[in-house]
Amino acid sequence: MTDGCHDWTGHVIVCGLRGVGLRAVEQLRFAGVRVVVLDDDPDPRMTAVVRNWGVPHVVGSARLGTLEAVGLAGASAIVCVQEDDLHTLETALLAREQRPDLRVVVLLRNPAVGRAMAGIGVAVLDVAGLSAPSVVEACLRSAVHEIELAGERFVAVTVTASRKATLRSLYGDLAPVAVVPAGSTRVVVCPGRDHLVNEGDAVTLLGTPELVPAPTHDRAVPAQHHSGPGLLSRIRTAFGSFFAAADRRLLLPFAGLFALVVVSTAVLRMGYRGSDGRGMTVVDALYFNVETVTTIGYGDFSFHDQPAWLRVYAIGLMIVGTMLVAVFFAMLTNLLISRRIEEALGRGRLTGLRGHVVVVGLGSVGARVAERLAAEQARVVVVEQNQDNRYLAQMRALGVPVVIADATQPQALRAVNLADARAVAVLTSDDLVNLETGLAVRDQLGARWAQVPVVLRLFDEQLGQTVERSFGFGSVRSTAALAAPWFVGAALGLDVLGTFYVGHQPMLVGRLTVAPGGGLDGLAMGSLSARTRVVAIGRADGDPGSGLEYPPRRGTRFRAGDQAYVIGPYEELLQLLRRDSLSPGQVTPPTLLAPEATAPRGVIPRSAR
Questions:
Q1: Please, which residues have CB within 8 angstroms of residue 189's CB and are 6 or more apart in sequence?
Q2: Nearest in space to 394 (alpha carbons), one of 420, 359, 354, 425
Q3: Residues in Cβ contact with 140 at an 8 Å cutoff, skipping those fewer than 6 apart
Q4: pLDDT for the residue numbered 216
Q5: Residue 517 C-alpha from the chain's centroid
Q6: What is the pLDDT of residues 38-97, one digit of tens each?
């Protein structure tokens, strides 16, 4: 179905529907942008969804004739998110060759190819890299989100209101990003500075590091950096790991050897007499016993002149002692070698581990999350079911232990010492497995469930919200939903600079350049949607060294060529971008922009991941 889209102009072509592709189509549609889908591997359920949205869907590979059929000549951008990197590369290069002025946005998992594509002006994005920061922040309960705007460092910080007052009286000119009332999950997005808050309300503010207050949100604990355990702790951990790993076969010869030495020490203490008729001290008896059972025999003591019964006892001592020592050291050697092999393969039990983060699933997202957690000095252990996983070598190089096991099984969770973990991130590519694992984690945590952040990856946002309400999960994330705004923004000319969550509300920070004669040219800040905040402005005609205009006032007006740094929900930013692409006469009043952004969404197939 093409519906004559080969004659369209100003539309966006999306190549590939799986994963982030369907989310990108959804968001483009809600932003009021015409979009056409080119899909070489159609899924009937996803095809039905986009056609139900009224979006043209063309089945075929991205060849020149097919690209012409979806209106490549008049398109404003093409988003290439095919499953195969080679197909994505082929489509992007062909589109760039035919339309050098076209915005080309691609999803590439290969970093070397991505760098090469970025060198020819293609916007290269990676879902794992874009979604990982949000997962890490949820695991570490970070209250501080760092953002760089035009080379200047800004931070978004969540604090707790100390008293009932307006935001202006509490925080001055700092930009309020969101307010979460105490005891509520409702998020007030981009409130005005005269908004009244109560004591205990969580307030997220944006500003420069020297101006923002220290985070005091009781639900947001900064990441803890481990400087490493002390000597006594290391000794306790080593002995605890040894005895936890030692099975009955090792403990039995050790106990027998210990009992033999104790009994023999008592026998020698009472029955042994030297040439001068004096007996042995306890230390001498212990020394002679160890010397005998280890077959060292320095010659300073002997049974030559002892009574017959003691010499007979010595025969038994040497035979039994030698056997027990041989068995004990053989089994000890076997245990140490076995544990070393198991740890190399990621199968060893991680006893003695405390305050760590458990990452379930070592796909591209799981690997990136583990990498970022390790960079934050957090202890990490990964659970992965596939022993041939491609990221195993990367994890071992980082010193991150990987346990090959099925995380839905209680014994696998006990093996990674879940009871003492500080956070859990369940990040496989299968929603059902993630949900099953999350419920298993909840059962194992027991009373600690409310204190330990558990991040659950689910593709469908509606399902995620239902799971949160039904099962009490606090952080359900859709990696596709987190990454899609970056792809859509790049396609429409909005540079997405960062994403983070306030409660359950994802917030985007982006940069747009005001188009000459567009809907924003000459517009005052006060005329924008109430759910959008302009953080700073880089003036086009300003002194290059003058920096950003921060904070802008309500009466401040945009001028053509200005770079505006904005924050808000992605629907609002896309509407703002859409508004700038129109002439002033075509702009819908701000109060009429919200309904389209909040229109009911279609049902997303579970297979679209």
A1: 177, 178, 502, 505, 507, 531, 568, 569, 572
A2: 359
A3: 221, 222, 223, 224, 357, 373, 376, 378, 423
A4: 52
A5: 41
A6: 988 888 888 899 989 999 999 888 777 889 889 999 999 999 998 888 889 999 999 999
Residue 349 has pLDDT above 50, yes or no: no
With b meaning 16 or more CB within 10 Å and e meaning fewer, what string describes 235-244? eeeeeebbee
Among 66-80, 356-370, 536-550, the least confident range = 536-550
Q: Does residue 468 sit in helix, strand or coil? A: helix
Residue 447: exposure state from Cβ atoms within 10 A (0-12, 13-18, ≥19): exposed
Question: Is the Cα torsion angle 585, 596, 13, 80 positive or negative in sign?
Answer: positive
Residue 191 tokens, joined: 């409130």
3-state secondary structure of 155: strand
pLDDT above 60 (res 601): no
Per-residue confidence band for 593, with pLDDT thresholds at 50, 70 and 90? very low
What single-letter amino acid sits at 554? Answer: R
Residues of the chain with pLDDT > 90, as a percent, come to 25
Is there a contact between 198 and 181 (Cβ–Cβ < 8 Å)? yes
What is the DSSP-derived secondary structure letter of residue 163? S
Beta carbons within 8 Å of 345's beta carbon, 6+ residues apart: 387, 404
Angle (CA) 494-498-499 rounded to 5° is 110
434 closest CA partner among 421, 424, 444: 424
Cα separation, 430 vs 435, in Å, equals 9
* SS3 sequence of 108-132: CCCHHHHHHHHCCCCEEECHHHHHH
Q: Give the pLDDT mean for 528-550.
A: 79
